[in-house]
């Protein structure tokens, strides 16, 4: 997967072709509730730029875009009251990582004890 697929579902959300339950937006970032939440709080944070995964974002995004993404995570977790009890951020990447949507996204999960990092041992 080396070319960005502009038909992916998050690209459609960014173009306004599909609705989302928005949590936060700025010039570089959109965040919205996951449609199939795996925890009491499950929010997806995505860059508006066309990045396939975290490695593409880290290698090619501007400093402003990177700062905006992490700044959004800080703001959202504070606003949602997740800081005190903690939360988890996941970036599923590629086939082994279980990435389903090929537009870079961070999952913010919280609101309960999330258990072990992986469901199954190696
Ligand atoms: P990943 O496996 O990391 O690619 O995660 C993709 C996530 O996107 C899953 O948790 C899905 O539930 C979520 N998702 C898929 N379609 C939508 C949608 N239209 N709105 C919000 N979340 C979605």
CATH-defined superfamily: HIT-like
Report the helical percentage: 25-40%
Number of domains: 1
What gyration radius follows from the Cα positions, in whole Å?
14 Å
**Strand order, sheet with most strands:** 1-2-3-5-4
Derived structural class: alpha+beta
As for the CATH topology, it is: HIT family, subunit A
Q: What is the total tally of β strands?
A: 5
Small molecules (ligands, ions, cofactors) in the structure: adenosine monophosphate
Please provide a written account of the structure.
With 122 residues, this protein is of the alpha+beta class. It has a single domain (9-110), classed as 2-Layer Sandwich (HIT family, subunit A), CATH 3.30.428. Helices cover 28% and strands 20% of the residues. The chain contains four helices and five strands; from the N terminus they run H-E-E-E-H-H-E-H-E. It has helices at residues 9-14, 54-60, 63-79, 94-97, and strands at residues 22-25, 29-33, 41-47, 87-90, 106-110. Strands 1-2-3-5-4 form a five-stranded antiparallel sheet, with helices on one face. Strand 2 (29-33) and strand 3 (41-47) form a beta hairpin. The longest helix has 17 residues, at 63-79. The protein binds adenosine monophosphate. Adenosine monophosphate binds at residues 9, 18, 20, 32, 34-36, 44, 92, 98-101.
């Amino acid at each position: 997967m080396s070319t960005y697929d502009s038909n992916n579902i998050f690209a459609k959300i960014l173009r306004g072709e599909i609705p989302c339950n928005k949590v936060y937006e700025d010039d570089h970032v959109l965040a919205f509730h996951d449609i199939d939440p795996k925890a009491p709080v499950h929010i997806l944070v995505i860059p508006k730029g066309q990045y396939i995964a975290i490695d593409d974002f880290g290698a090619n995004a501007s400093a402003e875009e990177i700062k905006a993404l992490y700044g959004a995570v800080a703001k959202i977790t504070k606003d949602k009251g997740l800081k005190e009890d903690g939360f988890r951020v996941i970036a599923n990447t590629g086939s082994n990582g279980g990435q389903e949507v090929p537009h870079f996204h961070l999952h913010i999960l919280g609101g309960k004890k999330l258990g072990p990092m992986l469901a199954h041992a190696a």
